[in-house]
Amino acid sequence: MIRIVTVVGARPQFIKAAAVARAIHDEFADRVTEVLVHTGQHYDENMSKVFFEELDIPHPKYNLEISGGQHGTMTGRMLEAVEKVLLEEKPDWVLVYGDTNSTLAGALAAAKLHIRVAHVEAGLRSFNMRMPEEINRIVADRLSTLLFCPTDTAVANLAKEGVSAGVENVGDVMFDVALFYREQARKQSTALASLGLAEGAFALATCHRAENTDDPNRLGEIVAALAEISASLPVVLPIHPRTRKLLADSGFDKNLGNVKVVDPVPFLDMVALEQAARVILTDSGGVQKEAFFYRVPCITMRDETEWVETVEAGVNFLVGANRAKIIDVFAAIHGNQCEFRGQPNLYGDGHAANAIAERIVGVAP
User: Fold this and answer.
1) What are the backbone angles phi and psi of residue 97, rounded to the nearest 5°?
2) Helix ranges restricted to H, the chain
3) In Å, how far are 230, 269, 307 from 272, measured between CA atoms?
4) CA–CA separation, 186 vs 254, rounded Å?
């Protein structure tokens, strides 16, 4: 029996883990045991517990309940706790996702115990070393035996760094998820009705990255842009608890105009909102891709993106945290100057999770 310990801690990781866990169960239930470890990095119930219930993921065997604090403190506490789990479980593989502190801690703990690491979403690069996520993903890639890339660009990034062994473009697990849940979200979610929104007649915004929320100048520009947009198109802003606090502390919460600020929404509600939006404004890597999957123009409020393919396709626009640029691009999109016409299939065939499960089992002892 092959034993896998999966380490997750943040919303996007829960969603990706659901797809891979389903593939493992469907194809290899008689050969694989998967143990789920939740670090607790996202501690708010709307951002963690509800996802396990809604996506039908088995509840974690371990909940480390580690959240808050500086990056070093958080990662160190996770490293110590994950190491104890690995010593007890003695897995053949540790499976990590993305680029969070949970990812880094899981990869480090496994590598130091000589347990093989499989990294889903390997090879992504923003080329901005000021981003904690960039450090996390680079280290995780260096420690991994199997590097599951979502795109050809990610494979090329690793090749430039001299990494080729164990590298494979399996496609994007989030594309699997988008295909699996899109109709379910349309049928089950009541988010549009409860928020008083009409399909194709609102903007969906998210903002959580430290580079934006911790910089008063950048946060102020974003708030000003969203407020201005809300004068002509309803804007709904599901907001991370940390961002809500920073808005209140800075007084920017009083400058949001007609923006409808709501608590983080359950997964299916978020999928429903993304599909129905006229435009999406975000600094989230995952939401950028989801916008592409659902063929919704995206304004990315960052200076760079890991998902360069969507920018090159002309449907994702990098604007930084500049109010004027955000407004200009929004005006162009709102005036129907951005359309999806024959965009290529950039993120695989919707079976990335199956490929990951098969590859791990295929190289297991």
Assistant:
1) -130, 135
2) 11-28, 49-54, 71-89, 101-112, 132-143, 152-160, 173-188, 191-195, 210-213, 216-230, 241-250, 267-276, 285-293, 308-312, 323-334, 352-363
3) 20, 5, 22
4) 33
Q: Which of 282, 217, 230, 218 lies closest to 256 in space, CA to CA?
A: 230
Q: Token pair for residue 357?
A: 């499960």
Is residue 178 assigned to a domain? Answer: no
Q: How far is CA 181 from the centre of its chain?
A: 16
| Residue 340 lies inside a defined structural domain of this protein | no
Tokens of 143: 């420690």
Task: Note whether 196 and 158 are same-domain residues.
Answer: no
Same domain? For 212 and 130 the reply is no
Residue 255 in tokens: 């400058």
What's the predicted TM-score (pTM) here?
0.87
- Beta-carbon count within 10 A of 214 CB: 11
Q: What 8-state DSSP symbol labels residue 93?
A: E
Bridge partners of 300?
Answer: 282, 318
Q: What is the pLDDT of residues 298-323, one digit of tens each?
A: 999 999 999 999 999 899 999 999 99
To 5 degrees, how large is the angle CA 102–CA 103–CA 108?
Answer: 100
Closest CA to 281 of 331, 245, 343: 331
DSSP assignment of 194-226: HHT--TTS-EEE----HHHHT-HHHHHHHHHHH
Rounded Cα–Cα distance for residues 120 and 114 (Å):
19
What pLDDT digit, counting tens, does each position of 262-304 carry? Answer: 998 988 999 999 999 999 999 999 999 999 999 999 999 999 9
Q: What is the Cα–Cα distance from 273 to 265, expressed in whole angstroms?
A: 10
Q: Which two tokens stand for residue 283?
A: 């600094």
Active site residues: 208
Q: Are residues 73 and 112 in the same domain?
A: yes
